[in-house]
Specification:
The structure holds two protein chains of two kinds.
Chain A (H helix, E strand, L loop, with lengths): L5 H9 L3 H19 L5 H17 L10 H23 L4 H9 L8 H12 L2 H12 L4 H8 L3 H23 L3
Helix pairs in contact in A: 1-2, 2-3, 2-4, 3-4, 4-8, 7-8, 7-9, 8-9
Chain B lengths: L5 H6 L5 H19 L3 H8 L2 H27 L9 H18 L9 H17 L11 H5 L2 H19 L7 H22 L5 H9 L1 H23 L12
The chains are: A mainly alpha, B mainly alpha.
Chain lengths: 179, 244
């Protein structure tokens, strides 16, 4: 099953093969979880990941043969997260549970310090730039795929990425200090 | 990276065992959620988007046309005359756009601005319908009377049908408000073609306000839904998708 293409896996899943869905989950869940995590707690990112795959299950009949599964899944994930963030904004409630969870969490491991630092800087970027950079840098999607997933033009994605990377560079330099 | 063994991913510093455990937990919950995807609602949501929109179009068309037809068959030819073509097309276009957007699949990007504009149009357009159709005929709804209550009941049924067809259920609030807009416009058109009362005060007070009432009804429904989920699983800020 691991050597099958996304197209073959989706075709098998639509035909009722549960193993194909497991393989799709194994293939894409880690990258989706990474994309969903910034700005939300661990519990919430799990819920959002579950919702993303449940949407994939519900919309499996819409999947056209030859379509690319990766941007399809990432677009669902982005929309699911947007809905969630809007709900949080509407309630105007601080995610108290997650704050407590973060306070109680052990300090990050030394090997991950740099990555954690980049993640923190990434979280400070404007949402539009952050989404583009997460999909491009972390999830390694091409700019064209990012444009598909985010729903803006290729030129707009390039501009957002350029500004986002520039901002990241500046803030990283400020944090590290002059060499 | 997904194909790397866990130990290598852990060593590379980009992946943690805790992430793997989190994925296992999600996988189990997902399996349970998919197992719960049974019944009529699950079947409706699993239909291709064209099929879901087709069902919704038929339901809306029946809502608008059926009371008029039933009234016509009951009493033979009526003095009712068709509305002007241009405004009829405008309202039909708004209704179709609302319907399409309310069932927009999540794997496609959507414009927040367009959604907000459409919801506003769905709620405000009925106020412009006051002088739209000639009216004067008395169809089924007119015989029954109580336009506001009947319109709200029919509208609420439409909202629930559209929610059942939408894959996001009640978690996708934007789509839910679009459904309220659809129901508002559809019930107003039905009443417009059917209600014997042609006075502007009646149409403003008893027809146009149906959309606002549906919106308030929906807000109350959501609050109840959230309260029920909080009771079931205290400590969680958001209801699980499986429970929707």
């Amino acid at each position: 099953m691991t050597s099958h293409t996304d197209d073959e896996l989706m075709a098998a899943y639509v035909a009722g093969d549960g193993g194909a869905f497991n393989e799709i989950f194994r293939r894409y869940a880690p990258a989706l979880l990474r994309a969903l995590k910034p700005g939300v707690g661990s519990d919430e990112s799990s819920d959002l990941l579950q919702q993303t795959f449940l949407h994939l299950h519900r919309s499996r009949a819409d999947f056209a043969s030859g379509a690319a599964l990766r941007p399809w899944l990432f677009t669902i994930a982005i929309n699911v997260k947007r809905q969630h963030m809007r709900t949080l904004l509407r309630r105007r409630e601080a995610p108290l549970g997650d704050m407590l969870e973060n306070l109680a969490a052990p300090p990050p491991r030394t090997a991950r310090d740099e990555l954690e630092g980049i993640a923190a800087l990434l979280a400070e970027l404007p949402p539009a730039q952050r989404t583009v950079i997460e999909l491009h840098f972390i999830d390694e999607l091409s700019f064209a795929r990012v444009a598909d997933a985010v729903g803006v033009s290729l030129a707009a994605v390039r501009v957002r990425a350029h500004r986002g990377y520039e901002l990241l560079r500046q803030r990283f330099a400020e944090k590290v200090g002059p060499e | 990276m997904e194909s790397q063994p866990l130990s290598e991913r852990e060593a590379s510093g980009t992946w943690l065992v805790s992430d793997e455990l989190q994925l296992d937990e999600v996988r189990l919950r997902l399996r349970a959620a998919i197992a719960q995807e049974r019944g009529l609602t699950a079947r409706l949501r699993a239909l291709p988007t064209q099929g879901r929109i087709g069902i919704a179009v038929v339901a809306v068309a029946l809502t608008v046309v059926l009371p008029r037809l039933l009234g016509h068959f009951n009493r033979g030819p009526s003095p009712w005359t068709a509305p002007a073509a241009a405004p009829a097309l405008v309202y039909a276009a708004i209704l179709i756009a609302l319907l399409w957007s309310s069932l927009w699949p999540l794997q496609r990007t959507r414009s927040r601005f367009v959604d907000v504009a459409l919801v506003s149009a769905g709620l405000l357009a009925p106020f412009g319908l006051v002088d739209f159709a000639p009216g004067g005929a008395c169809g089924l709804l007119g015989h029954l009377g109580y336009c506001f209550f009947i319109g709200t009941a029919v509208g609420w049924t439409l909202v629930l049908l559209l929610r059942a067809l939408d894959r996001g259920g009640h978690q996708d609030r934007t789509a839910a408000w679009l459904s309220v807009g659809v129901a508002s416009l559809a019930t107003n058109l039905a009443l417009q073609f059917d209600c014997p009362e042609t006075g502007a005060p009646h149409r403003l007070a008893c027809h146009a306000t149906i959309g606002v009432a549906l919106g308030l009804q929906y807000l109350a429904f959501i609050r109840w839904h959230e309260w029920r989920n909080t009771k079931r699983s205290p400590g969680r800020s958001e209801p699980k998708m499986a429970a929707v």
